[in-house]
Fold:
Amino acid sequence: MDFKKIMESDEYDFIRKNDRLGKRIMLLGLGGSHAYGTSNKNSDIDFRGVTLQKPSDLLGLTQFEQYEDDKTDTVVYGFNKMVKLLLDCNPNTCEILGLDEDQYLIKSELGQELIDNTGLFLSKRAIKSFGGYADSQLRRLQNAIARDTLPQSEREKHILKSVMHALEDVNRRFYGKTDGGLKVYIDKAVNPELDTEIFVDADYKHFPLRDYEDVWGVMRSVVRDYDKIGKRNKKKDDNHLNKHAMHLIRLFMMAIDILEKGEIRTHRVNDLDLLLSIRRGDFMEPSGSFSAAFFEMLDEYERKLDEAAAKTKLPDNPDMEKVGKFVERINRYAITEEKE
Structure:
């Protein structure tokens, strides 16, 4: 597929004409399955990139984080937001720095500098960030399997576990604590169509309404996903499950590379046979669950990640002084268009 020719089509005119993009783009490359090498005939085309801030973002009153074109599934991050995400080893943005040469559609001198300075951003934070993404992917997989294969009372236990996990994550991320004012538990059902169901005891005082809405939104989302049982397109959903399983293993592979080798390798050339076999459904059982071999492989990758985390030579955190100097130099050019 000629991605550069696709980028030059009228559909992508915004890349050339938008004043946030055009000559300001530092990097633009492939995203998603085409970047990993795991695409098939149904894979969408995703472009991901980085663009310089405008002088008014740095000296004036304008603000810019990212440009999104939903029609083409293109996302271009402002340089400053890209840096913040890279400092946290965010998997979706780390990928942009780990493409093969021919997977970049645009790469300026400053874009090459960003790639050359990848090591500035790599730290043990990758353990948490990639591990968190992998955990989220695993829960999506487990949730879907449980939703479709377990008896109602067992499925309710699974929903409870997912709700509790989601609440812990919300409390930790937004409120800096691991417990909240909600108690969720299973008891004999009031709903005549259920054997057991989840109940809630709430104990909140002087709690912001919008935050309260967020908490309920998280729980509602979990329950809604499970309640889709009986309404799924099996072939389509099995394809999605296999894709989730593939990405789960891929995340472990990338995290191990970062921790062991200090490098980002987005295009998984040496792992394609395994990844594509997972995507094809070679590890899925007729019941919709996954084989013991898949979960044994998952256990092995978790072990490898733990070992890599224990032995890595990466620092606990990036060297912010060095990162700061690099960011200042790039942003000085964004304002003056003069190199040091």
Observations:
- The longest helix spans residues 234-261.
- The chain has a mean pLDDT of 88.
